[in-house]
Amino acid sequence: MMHQEVTASALFSVEAEQQLLGAILNDNTLFDQISSMLRPDHFYDPVHARIYKLAAARIAKDHLVSPVQMKSDFAEDEGAQQLGGPTYFIKLSGAAVSSFAIRDYADMIVKLHDRRTMAGRLKQLSEEVEKGGDAGKAASELELYLHEREEHSDEPRTMSFLKAQTLSLQRMIDIKNGEQVKVPSGLQALDEILKLNPKQYTILGGSTSMGKTALALSITLAAARAGFGVGFVTLEMPEEDLANRINSVISQIPYNTYTDPMSENQFRKVVEAAKELEALPLEIFSERVRDVPAILSEGKKLKRKMKPNGPFKGFKLLVIDYIQLVRAKGESQHVRLAEVANALKQVAKQLDVHVIALAQVDRSLGKEENYQNARPRLADLRGSGDLENAPDNVVFVFRPEYYLTPPRCIPPKDPDQRADWEADYDHWKGKAEIIVAKARMGKIDSVTVECDMTTNVFRDVPDRQMDAGF
Question: Does the reported pTM lie above 0.70?
Answer without folding.
Answer: no
